[in-house]
Amino acid sequence: MAEAYSEKGRLPACILDEKILDQVWSILGQDGEFIWQAVVGTGGDLLGQQKDRPQEIVTDRGRLGELLATLPRIDSLQFTAEMEGKGAVSFSFRNYNPPAGALVVAGQDAAWTIQRFDALGGLFASHRDERADRLYGKLMFVIINSVVPLAVASLIAVLATVFIVPAWIRQSEFLWWTTAGTVVLTLWLASKISNKLIIHCLQKHPYIRWPS
User: Fold this and answer.
1) pLDDT at residue 1 tops 60
2) pLDDT of 55-67, one tens digit each?
3) Which member of 63, 103, 125, 185 has the greatest number of CB atoms within 10 A?
């Protein structure tokens, strides 16, 4: 099928449940039967460094709800559906660094494409996890991922240099070596602090979660 129109956008951090799945089926079922598949990430590291992440492919509606409800943590969710003669829908969530959500709708008719995009986008927006969504906004996440770790690491590195490295070394021809070491230490510490902050945030405020 050659799609002539498409709409895409960000999905907020969400609290998923059976109700939202039923509503997704209701929206997609307006055009009759549809073919769908979900790929659910069942494990993996929170920093997103693991390449081969455990997944389960699901094509049964009951199994999808059961799996999402029983996983200790939903690592990711990618859902695709095709409505014959109309178009296709895809939405995805990533519950590891960098956490994100996205919706794409492509169809042969502009009105259909926009209507399905608005309906699904509005549905997920109504289940928005406000605290998590604010936390993973662009500005806030930059602060968590870069600004805070660099500030804390710089302070630690400077204090370490002052109290550990003798003054005569800092004031001698070794000054440049001391400065270079301080920079390396700062970057190393910032990376460690950033990783710990990201893990803490994702553990406490997942991008997507199923209510317990």
Assistant:
1) no
2) 999 999 999 999 9
3) 103
Distance from C-alpha of 151 to C-alpha of 169, rounded to nearest angstrom: 25
Block residue for tokens 């997507």? 208
**Rama region for 93: left / alpha / beta (φ>0; ψ in -120 to 50; rest):** beta
Q: What is the rounded CA–CA span in Å between residue 99 and residue 192?
A: 19
66 or 196: which carries more pLDDT confidence? Answer: 66
25: how many CB neighbours lie within 10 A of its CB?
A: 13
Rg of the chain in Å (alpha carbons):
23
Q: Which two tokens stand for residue 52?
A: 């081969």
pTM reported for the whole predicted model: 0.81
Percent of the chain with pLDDT over 70: 81
Asked if 167 and 174 count as a contact pair (C-beta separation under 8 A), the reply is no
**Helix intervals (H) in the chain:** 18-28, 61-70, 110-126, 130-135, 138-142, 148-164, 167-170, 175-204
Rounded to the nearest 10°, the torsion over CA 132, 138, 139, 144 is 60
Angstrom distance (rounded) from CA 108 to CA 124: 24
> Which residues, in sequence order, are CB contacts of 169 under 8 Å at separation 6+?
178
Torsion over CA: 137, 140, 143, 145 (sign): negative
- Please work out, in degrees rounded to the nearest 5, the angle formed at the alpha carbon of residue 125 by the alpha carbons of 57 and 10: 65
Structural tokens at position 71: 């996983």
Q: How many residues are present in the chain?
A: 212
Contact (Cβ atoms closer than 8 angstroms) between residue 77 and residue 68: yes
